[in-house]
């Protein structure tokens, strides 16, 4: 619940600016520059979802666990249930268009007694998930650049340059710094990157969807694309239902990050409508073009064991090897495949840019409410009305998270697993409160689901609960240190630490979102 902390000397021009007036009603004064259109708001979410990035970086997982069927049919299943999550989030966003987004919603919907605790846990799941998202996106890009260099210099089986883990970390660091610099720019420049990211994703998917099947001399049959379940995976799992369930990770991870539209709402014009529409349209369009892109990629998958073989030219990167083979068979050279990989790399880069943007806005809002250590330092904007300090905090945390890759790839994957489950748990919490404690008291905004709001919300909550269980299951048998699924440990760690911090410290002072205007 909102608690007054400080006042302003001059009353805000409420009548002249409906967005400013609504923000003041929610307890905040306008401090970020409100310069984004509905299109720009959509573009940020669409860029961070980036199916070109999500599908490309998790394709190996989908191919190994269930293969084509788990991805092409699984995508449709995941898109349907994710649509319910997105619709429910959009409805809540319309009622509470603030940069805090999820944790602010939980505070408003959980009821007076539980509001501070609900806000605290939701906020920490959200921000840790976002930090992990930036880490996974940018580190995946660093690894992808390494694959491109490897293929360009002869391939793993032809004397190509295989970078050490320290070189990959250096590439990752450079990417992070560039993303920090871009996100230090004024909002009108940042808006351009968001819209360019949206354009690149649409144009890239359109181009590759046409080009890849057209170039291929050997193509998979429709039956193979939609019904083949790969069990030849060297992970000791043969049950097809189990494999298909675990393989849903590709689809679930690929449509993630659409809370960005909520976090950008204080910089968006007509936020009560533009924010929720940004969520819904970005998820809907990503679901459609993502499936088309996935089918096009899978059309050139004809030998799964060969594509996943670490000794192949691409070092086991299935997409890179498939595209390299496709162009080499047609033209005698794999250069065209490398160009396709470069198109994907640009999309991943733009996705990382949008991820830091979302991180920084969430961090700004969370520190504005005093929830983060040294909140007074992160809750600052510069002369260009950019939350400069928290931008570089996001970059720094992402760098520290990636240091785990130097010690253990298993540990790094466990940390990155927080991206999917941590963020979806943060998505589900305010929806859960919407359909339980606030079922009769929720006051919708301009975008609402009417009588279907509660039903759609419950579907979304149950789906996230199911996915949480699925992604905590063992991914290989027999279970050993080398293949142990640390996802429940990582996600459980976030829950344990946030609850422990609450019990030992935060419950004595954190009262939820804090107003900075007189109400």
TrEMBL record:
Q: Which residues cross the membrane?
A: 38-59, 71-93, 144-162, 169-192, 198-216, 279-301, 331-352, 386-404, 410-433, 454-477, 489-510
| Matching Pfam families | AA_permease_2
Its main localization is membrane
Gene3D superfamilies xrefs: Amino acid/polyamine transporter I
Topologically, how does it sit relative to the membrane?
Multi-pass membrane protein
Q: From which domain of life does this come?
A: Eukaryota
A single GO CC term for this protein reads:
membrane
Q: Which GO terms describe its molecular function?
A: gamma-aminobutyric acid transmembrane transporter activity; L-alanine transmembrane transporter activity; L-glutamate transmembrane transporter activity; L-lysine transmembrane transporter activity
User: By what name is this protein known?
Assistant: Amino acid permease/ SLC12A domain-containing protein
| Upper taxonomic lineage | Eukaryota, Viridiplantae, Streptophyta, Embryophyta, Tracheophyta
